[in-house]
Design a protein that fits this description.
Elements: H1 3-8, H2 11-34, H3 38-57, H4 64-83, H5 90-110, H6 123-126
Helix pairs in contact: 2-3, 2-5, 3-4, 4-5
């Protein structure tokens, strides 16, 4: 992927691309772990951590509860990524969570024409009028 292609992406497309990259890094880290190539695991975990930092930095402070929840999820994934150096079995959980997040992100991206449905109890979190 070229730098020009990255600049032409929407924020949603860029997030999806980074999530795909994150899944790839975790898959490669698991392969390295299973083959006992810990140097490869180290490289992949570093790249995964960097992607998580970029995803977290790209969150919009005005995004409300969803942004807050994504922030917490990215933080959790980053912490578990660091813990995977000590306990490599954590990689299985972070891969599963990241795959689920990617699938959810892709499904939400398909619903462009439909407005988001907001539950009444979210008013207190987002300060919105209903």
């Amino acid at each position: 992927m070229t730098e020009q292609e990255l600049y032409q992406m929407t924020p949603q497309q860029l997030t999806e691309t980074m999530l795909k990259g994150l899944v790839f890094q975790y898959e490669q880290a698991i392969t390295g772990r299973d083959e006992r190539r810990f140097d490869a695991v180290n490289v992949r975990l570093q790249k995964a951590y960097q992607l998580l930092e970029k995803l977290q930095a790209g969150l919009n402070d005005e995004g409300g509860i969803i942004t807050a929840q994504l922030d917490q999820l990215y933080y959790y994934l980053a912490e578990q990524t660091l813990q995977a150096y000590v306990e490599p079995t954590r990689l299985d959980e972070v891969l599963q969570l990241t795959e689920e997040l990617l699938i959810t992100w892709q499904a939400a991206s398909l619903k462009k024409d439909r407005p988001l449905v907001r539950a009444a109890h979210h008013e207190r979190y987002e300060g919105m009028d209903y």
